[in-house]
Each structure stands twice: as structure tokens, then as C-alpha cells.
Please model this.
Amino acid sequence: MDDIITTHRLTKTYGSRTVVDDLDLRVPQGCVYGFLGPNGSGKSTTMKMLLSLARPSRGEITVLGRPMNRTTRAGILREVGSLIEAPPGYGHLTGRENMEIVRRMLGLTGGQVSRAVATVRLQGHMDKPVREYSLGMKQRLGIAMALAREPRLLVLDEPTNGLDPAGIEEIRELLVSLAGNGVTVMVSSHLLDEIDRMASVLGILSRGRLIFQGTRAELFARSTPDLLVDTPEPERALALGIPAVRTEGGLRLSGFGDEDTAALVRRLVGGDVPIHGVRRVRRSLEEVFMDLTGREGLL
Ligand SMILES: Nc1ncnc2c1ncn2[C@@H]1O[C@H](COP(=O)(O)OP(=O)(O)OP(=O)(O)O)[C@@H](O)[C@H]1O
Ligand SMILES: [Mg+2]
Model:
């Protein structure tokens, strides 16, 4: 499968601070790519660089198979729809008037605009001023603006931010169906939950660095499942200095690979701790993500 976006060592510094650090992104064609990271990890800055809204300090960007530079970017961006940070649109104008501005700016047809509006299901709300829209409707209008040009790539920065679960579900269905129709969607969030069920590929940023990129299954495979030790005498094990937390029926330990587990069992047996069972438990994706991002906070 071809990659729709690739970056090589993409970096952004502000003064002496590196906020995006050496990113090698690969966004495969036709997927929903979930771009995840805690607040301030560099998601918006990266997306702005992909859209030529911020200039990279270092590194290269390829979009739609073409290297992004001063001469190619206008042509490339004609095929890219985007929504960065706050939803766009003039509050005092109606949805229809806002879409008309976009139509004229981009030289689109009325048909393209009405198809985009229908896709986000805003047909019934086009004559209302945008300031009277709910947040979900504003996000949908923003997506309609991004979609009207019939892009091959959509770059959406936190389109589910602030939405209720029903609104998130609606955006999820919309993005998954767009990807089903061949549009590649790159979507960011600081909440794993919001993105996990729509993205087939995940990129995870932490402090400007890409700490994981791959499928959800690959992310799971990366994690070592926790170990549960069933014992009626957990205190005896803790007294040996074993880094465990007490659970009902025994102890729970994180990050123990196969050899660590063998050593642990030898130590417990040597310390006369009665062991009724040792088993592994799968961790939630949320826990895996928290470990990867150093538990610096998923709100
Ligand atoms: N124009 C700028 N000048 C200086 N620092 C900036 C600028 N823009 C962003 N930063 C810093 O870069 C870091 C990354 O910001 P960015 O907005 O890319 O993060 P984010 O992952 O999108 O966060 P959020 O989840 O809050 O939207 C932050 O520490 C921010 O303060
Ligand atoms: Mg941001």
C-alpha cells in the first residue's frame, strides 16, 4: 500500500525548544490514521507543518507522493482538506453563507458543496447563523468545508474535541465511511478513547517524539501483559521487596518478561511464599498508552 504522507526527520524548534522531534511518519493510503498524544506533545504543530501552515525547522515532507516545497505545495494542497484547531466559519453568517465563501474561494460547484453538506448531515441547518450551532454542528460544518473540494486526504485536528459521546460516534462513523470510500483521514486527539475505535493505524507522540506507529494490534503486542500471582500470603512476598501491588487473592506486577517471571518465581519459592497460581492478564489499550506516554496525563 502506498503512503499518502511520509516525513523524514521532521523537526520544529521554537527558540531553543524542540517541540516536534525527528518524526518519521507513514500514513498509508485509505486508512484512518489516529494521531495521538497528550496536550502539548506537538500534534497541532506537526499537522500545521504537513499543511504548510508552519515551516519545518528540519526534515522533509512528502504528501500524495510528491515532496512538499514552495513550488509544489499549492498543487498538493488543492487535494487536501483540513480542519486545524478551532472550527472555522463566521458566526454571524449562516451555514449556507459560510459554505458559499468556501465555494467561491476554491472555485467549486454548487453540487460539490451540497454533497459535502449532506455527508455531514447539516442540510436542515444551513439557514441558521453559525453562532447558534452546537459545538458538534460547528465541527461538522468545518468538516464540510474541508470535504467540499473532494480531497484525497483529510487532516483533522481534534475534530471530536468537546463533543458528547453521540457527537463523537457521529464523527467516527463519518470518518470511517470516508476512508471506506478511499479518502485517507489523519485525525488527532489527546484522548485514546475517542480515536481508538475509528483509527486503523495509530501514531503516538510524547514530548514531540513519535514513540509508536503501527496498528492497534501491534501496539498491544508491544506491551507485556501484567502478571498475577495468586497467594494467600502477599505480605510475605512484599516483605521480600518484590515490586508488586496487592490485589484480591494475591499480587499484580507490571513489566515482567519471561526471564523476569522465572526469576520472580524462584525468589518467591526461596522466600517460602505459597504460590497457588501465576498467570498473565491483558492490559487495556488505555494502560498501554499511559505507559508509553509516561503517564503524563490523558485527561
Ligand atoms: N508559535 C509557537 N511558539 C512557541 N511555542 C509554540 C508555538 N506553537 C506551539 N508551541 C509549543 O509547542 C508545543 C506543542 O504544541 P502543539 O500545539 O503542537 O501541541 P498539541 O499536541 O497540539 O497539544 P493540544 O493537545 O493541547 O492541542 C507546546 O509546548 C506549545 O507551547
Ligand atoms: Mg493541538
